Amino acid sequence: MSTGWQGDLTTANYGPGAGNTLTVLTNNGSGRFVFSSTLNVGIGVFMSQRGCQWDGKLDLVSANNTDSTLSVLTNNGSGGFVLATNLSVGKAPDWVAVADINGDGKPDLITANSGNNTLSVLANATPFPIQGQLAFKLSSRRVWRRP
User: Fold this and answer.
1) Using an 8 Å Cβ cutoff, are 20 and 3 in contact?
2) d(CA 107, CA 111)
3) Residue-wise over 115-126: b if at least 16 C-beta within 10 A, else e?
4) pLDDT along the chain (147 residues), means of 10
5) DSSP state letters, 46-79
6) What is the C-alpha to C-alpha distance for residues 103 and 114, in angstroms, rounded to an integer?
7) Pairing between β-strand 69-75 and β-strand 81-88 as defined by DSSP bridges
8) pLDDT for the residue 109
9) What is the pLDDT of residue 129?
10) For the chain, which terminus, N or C, has the lower number of CB atoms within 10 Å?
11) HSE-up of residue 61 (Cα within 13 Å, Cβ side)
12) pLDDT at 1 (0 to 100)
């Protein structure tokens, strides 16, 4: 996941022997992928989402189902990632999406939480340029469910 993204891959690893990790494989430019890193995230990682660009670099977010958190890992600019923060969300998030929900130009985070049938929207409250920790404001809403 270099700053000049060329089709790198990220996998979410969960289960016996896999740990709770994300694995990054970088495209070597000749159609092959090489191991870059394995990153520890929260318990029960279900999905990772690329594309949160706080500073122009592609970052990673994982939905951690068992501990009801998101792990945000920022790109260090040389192919590696650093855990920036863990964020609490609704019960058992199965999916995370990144979009500018409120139109302020900052990437916000949205989770679908199967444990309590809610969506969590985390509005990005991080001042720019980033100095210190990322900040988000959580709001959860119940999702209508057909009986």
Assistant:
1) no
2) 13
3) eeebbbbbbbeb
4) 61 79 86 88 72 71 90 81 85 88 83 87 70 55 54
5) EEEEEEE-SSSS-EEEEEETTTTEEEEEEE-SSS
6) 27
7) antiparallel
8) 86
9) 47
10) C
11) 26
12) 44
